[in-house]
Amino acid sequence: MKKLILLAPAIALASISLATPASSAPLAFDCPGGYSCYWTGSGGTGTQWNAPSCGPWTFAGTVWDNNLGSVQNRGGGTVHLYDSADATSNYLGSVVNNGAGVNLGALGAKVSSIRIDC
Q1: 84-107 pLDDT, tens per residue?
Q2: Which of 17, 51, 70, 92 is the most exposed place for a label (fewest CB within 10 A)?
Q3: DSSP β-ladder status, 70-73 and 36-39
């Protein structure tokens, strides 16, 4: 049986209710089904990137490198976070595919790459 691991206490506060502003700003944690989505801000705010497929992805040279504020995994596999550009070393934790948004806090300042299970 495969064991799914949520990120440790640093992001255990994954589901914090946010008030929806009256403006026409995008909804927080608005990730389409079948994707895992990444934001520079907490609560699914800031600049967003949706991973197009499973596999390894590096954030080197992008706004998300060591600047990942939140993640929502609505894809088919677990997302693994790394403090390296190669998505194989310096493992930080994982986000399961349960659809809940996760705020990374200080941990987001270490994420340089991800690997998404297929």
Answers
A1: 999 999 999 999 989 889 999 999
A2: 17
A3: antiparallel
Spatial contact of 88 and 75, defined as CB atoms under 8 Å apart: no
| Cα Rg of the chain, angstroms | 13
Q: Which two tokens stand for residue 86?
A: 């190669």
Neighbouring CB atoms inside 10 A of 42's CB total 19
Other beta carbons within 10 angstroms of residue 32's beta carbon come to: 10
Measured between alpha carbons, how far is 30 from 101 in angstroms, rounded to an integer? 9
pLDDT in tens, 9-65: 333 333 222 333 334 445 689 999 999 999 999 999 999 999 999 999 999 999 999
Q: What residue type is 23 in one-letter code?
A: S
Does the predicted TM-score (pTM) go above 0.90? no
Q: Are 59 and 111 in contact (CB under 8 A)?
A: yes
Q: Which DSSP category does 46 fall into?
A: S
- Distance CA(7)–CA(71), nearest Å, equals 11
User: What number of CA atoms fall less than 13 Å from residue 90's CA on the CB side?
Assistant: 12
